[in-house]
Amino acid sequence: MINQLTSLLPQCFARKPMPIKVIFIGIDYLCFALSKSLLDNNKTSKQPLSITAFIDDEPWNNRTLVHGVTVFSPSEVSALIRKHGVDMIIQVAGESINIADNIWDDIIKTKVSIVTLEKHQDLKKMHSIVYQAYESIKK
């Protein structure tokens, strides 16, 4: 019994890593499915992920919730990155979100990592790309 307890102690007091803070550009089906899959993966992943915001340029989606996370307009991205210490932006190539060049310039100035995924990739491959990108910025 004591051996079992002593083997559990390190697990109980081990520090969990800080979650990767991400912003998703878009709320279409692929972004929705990927974000849900990444959140579900938190239960078993060594590196948890936290979604800070979703970005969509349709005014009727502004301030709605996706997976309990607020949808913001593109003009708010750089402020969200700075305010919440966001590590990564995830976008899917070909997404129909219209973000002005001056907003992208401001995003780039924050030095946040931008991960662009392809629509033809499966969710497992997308997971791998997201976590590899995080490992490369952590160094």
Please outline what is shown here.
The chain is α/β, with parallel strands linked by helices and 139 residues long. The protein is built from five helices and six strands.
Give me some keywords for this one.
139 residues; alpha/beta; Rossmann fold; six-stranded mixed beta sheet; 5 helices; 21% strand; TrkA family protein
Within CATH, the superfamily carries the name NAD(P)-binding Rossmann-like Domain
Estimated share of beta-strand residues: 15-25%
The rough form would be described as globular
What can be said about the biggest beta sheet?
6 strands, mixed
Sequence of secondary-structure elements: HEHEEEHEHEH
Category from helices, strands and their pairing = alpha/beta
Distance between the termini: 41 Å
Helix content: 40-55%
- Report the radius of gyration as a whole number of Å: 17 Å
